[in-house]
Amino acid sequence: MGEKFDALAHLGVPEIKAALVEEAKRMHVEDVATNQAMGRHGAVLLPASGNILTHCNAGALATAGYGTALGVIRAAVESGKNLHVFADETRPFLQGARLTAWELMKDGIPTTVIPDNAAGSMMRAGKIGAIVVGADRIAANGDTANKIGTYQVAVLAQENGVPFYVAAPFSTIDLATADGSGIPIEERAAREVTHFSGKQITPEGVGIGNPAFDVTPAKYVSAIITERGVARAPYAESLRELIHHPLKFD
User: Fold this and answer.
1) Which of 116, 125, 150, 219 maximizes the CB count within 10 A of its CB?
2) Contacts of 53 (CB under 8 A, 6+ apart)
3) Is 250 a catalytic residue?
4) What value does the mean pLDDT take over residues 207-213?
5) Tens-digit pLDDT profile for residues 126-166
6) Among the options 136, 179, 214, 250, which is catalytic?
7) What residues have CB less than 8 Å from 184, skipping those under 6 apart?
8) How far out from the chain centre does Cα 101 lie?
9) Taking every pair of C-alpha atoms in the chain, what is the biggest distance, in angstroms?
10) What integer pLDDT is reported at residue 27 of this predicted model?
11) How far apart are CA 221 and CA 229, in angstroms?
């Protein structure tokens, strides 16, 4: 949008406003189409029936519509697969409990919210058939940054033989960043941890750590799903190959 504005700076304000609105509409349509294409690529990876785990919100509320990780789940259900979703609550801001659960229920997709620390025991019990999450940035080697707590889900998935998929648009892939160590991690406000529903739940003056994201090493990722196709290890090669894949939107 900034580039569009710069290119139109010589025009009058009404013309600039109209052009920016049209650009925003174009981006909206493109984003939904991107997510739907991603969904089609990822849907085939999910089982015909069973339970899918997701962490945080990577749905229509986090995108222009349809979603990335939830887009894969939506596409799988639309294709006739019989899936039930376990949504990690995603502490401390509860995006899974508040947003993911709301979206899936609106779509009529059976959903159960679980505490973040219940995911491992459910995998061990054989209750999770696959995991699909979104990503905020993906390094050139396939290391993936996503909401805090994703890393531990990925480690537990490998320990229990559960496929761990990452769904994100190709624009999320940062080929200029060699690996996850180059991805900065945001530290968010302490109040997200110290308070719940407006009430303080921690002792006054206690130290607080609240990283918003963590990095999952590529060795724990079964596949990376994009609108251009699905990449698998070695990601240093497969992610670069996606540059040459044509985009096919229905």
Assistant:
1) 150
2) 85, 86, 87, 88, 119, 122, 123, 128, 130, 131, 132, 153, 162
3) no
4) 97
5) 999 999 999 999 999 999 999 999 999 999 999 999 999 99
6) 136
7) none
8) 15
9) 64
10) 93
11) 15
Neighbours of 230 (CB within 10 A): 18
Residue matched to tokens 């196709």? 229
Please provide the size of the chain in residues.
250
What's the pLDDT tens digit per position in 36-85?
Answer: 999 999 999 999 999 999 999 999 999 988 999 999 999 999 999 999 99
Structure tokens at 179: 């690996």
In angstroms, how far is the first alpha carbon of the chain from the final one? 25
Rounded to whole angstroms, the Cα distance separating 157 from 217 reads: 13
Per DSSP, helices labelled H in the chain are 2-7, 13-43, 69-78, 95, 101-106, 119-124, 150-159, 191-194, 235-241
Q: Which residues of 197-228 are buried (b: 16+ CB within 10 A; e: fewer)?
A: eeeeeeeeeeeeebebbbbbbbebbbbbbbbb
Burial, 248: exposed, middle or buried (Cβ in 10 Å; 0-12, 13-18, 19+)?
exposed
Q: Which residues contact 74 (CB under 8 A, 6 or more apart)?
A: 39, 66, 67, 107, 109
In the three-class reduction of DSSP (H, G, I as helix; E, B as strand; rest coil), residue 184 is classed as coil
CB-based contact 88:116 (threshold 8 Å): yes
Is 67:146 a contact under the CB 8 Å cutoff?
Answer: no
Question: If you search the block for the tokens 């739940």, which residue do you land on?
Answer: 201
Runs of H (alpha helix) within 68-200: 69-78, 95, 101-106, 119-124, 150-159, 191-194
Q: Are 88 and 55 in contact (CB under 8 A)?
A: yes
| β-bridge mates for residue 87, sequence order | 54, 113
> Hey, what are 26's tokens?
């174009």
